[in-house]
Amino acid sequence: MARKLAQKEEIKKGLVDGLPIVIGYIPIAMAFGILSKTSGIGFLDSFLFSVMVFAGASQFMALNLLNAGVGLGEIILTTLLVNFRHFLMSASLAGRIPKCGKKWLPLLAFGITDEAFSVISFKEGELSREYILTLQMISYLSWVGGTVLGYLLGAVLPETIQASMGVGLYAMFVAILIPEAKKSKKIAFLAILSGMVNTLLSYLEILPQGWNIVLSILLVSLIGVYLFERKEASYE
Question: Which whole-number Å values give the CA distances from 221 to 13, 67, 143, 214, in the listed order?
């Protein structure tokens, strides 16, 4: 009885803590659904995109790459590199869920997003499976539901408004980049350098456009590791 009450309490906490994520996800997911519609992607494909990927920035990026005619292999590799941080976030939280069976870990890892990780990591003490799953489930449903709503809404919007939604793609990346760039000059430098490297590679036309992005990410990431290692070493 006491265990069931504790589980209900954890579920309630997950619902309350996940509400801000839901409020933030729905409009962004709607923008993705509308952009999918205007990009010529079918309803089922757009729906499965959010169901199976569930990664906001990567979905917008993949949509842009599809529109640019980039190959499937380059899109998959680029998405993997962009989302590599999720391995670290999942590993960080796994150590705080001592009573969670191993069979639940893949599901918990799938539901980890930047926003979910931020909220969950601030919760004090041990984490329960019920709390995390509840928070992740309402976040997931809001993202998928927002995508469907946006796609359906895109079908009734005037063509001029649908076309203007393409700006939302760039606004999404700017909204992600600017706050981080303000925190660190190194991050701002790496972001600018990444754009310069990609522009240079595109101008030289040595590789296909998709591989230009992959190579830019790898090169600038290596430079970033060197810069931040020097910073850490200076503190020792």
Answer: 37, 25, 29, 11
What mean pLDDT is predicted for residues 82-87? 77
Encode 96-119: b = buried (16+ Cβ within 10 Å), e = exposed: ebeebeeeeeeebeebbbebbbeb
Domain count, the chain: 2
Backbone angles phi, psi at 158, to 5 degrees: -60, 150
Asked whether residue 174 is domain-assigned, the answer is no
Q: Which domain holds residue 82?
A: 2-164
Same domain for 158 and 194: no
82 pLDDT more than 80: no
176 pLDDT band, cuts 50/70/90, is low
Same domain, 78 and 155: yes
Return the exposure string of 160-177: e unless at least 16 CB atoms fall within 10 Å of the residue's CB, then b: eebeebbebbeebeeeee
173 belongs to a structural domain? no
pLDDT in tens, 30-51: 888 988 888 888 999 999 999 9
Between CA 230 and CA 234 the distance in angstroms is: 6
Same domain, 159 and 198: no
Q: Extract the tokens encoding 234.
A: 């200076």
In a domain, 179, yes or no: no
